[in-house]
Design a protein that fits this description.
single chain, mainly alpha, 6 helices
């Protein structure tokens, strides 16, 4: 996409998105290390988590408003399809964890649309029968008693 963008304003918009990616990656890295570190108490952990949530919401909104319109003006249908295939291959090994996480807390209608309109029937069934129940059974925060 960078090669196709000629206008400095468009390139700057893309660079801002990339900077947001870097900030979010750093927050995730810090949060991954936080539970084992003594210097990170519950207040700091809560603050970092809140920053991640706020930052990610804003970033996703920014991508939808900025990057997607750029993509539509720059990439042809075949290029967009290629992008979709490449990224589907990249996340396929982790789909059983990613998809339930992405849909966690989403409205039933949203889940239905994603499953029926964006994914093959086999993935829809696998999500419903295996992935979502396994995700729901996770004790991510160690809150369940043994």
């Amino acid at each position: 996409m960078r090669q196709s963008l000629r206008a400095p304003f468009s390139l700057a918009r893309l660079e801002v998105i990339e900077a947001e990616h870097a900030v979010l990656a750093r927050l995730l890295e810090t949060l991954d290390q936080a539970p084992g570190g003594r210097e990170v108490g519950p207040d700091l952990f809560s603050e970092l988590t809140g920053s991640l949530v706020t930052g990610l919401r804003g970033h996703l909104r920014h991508e939808e408003e900025t990057v997607f319109p750029l993509v539509q003006t720059v990439l042809g249908e075949e290029q967009w399809n290629h992008f979709g295939r490449v990224h589907a291959q990249r996340i396929e090994p982790d789909a059983a964890r990613i998809l339930p996480w992405l849909l966690d807390g989403a409205a039933e209608r949203t889940v239905a649309v994603v499953l029926t309109q964006l994914l093959p029937e086999s993935v829809h069934r696998t999500y419903t029968d295996r992935w979502q129940p396994a995700y729901a059974a996770l004790d991510r925060w160690g809150a369940r008693s043994p």
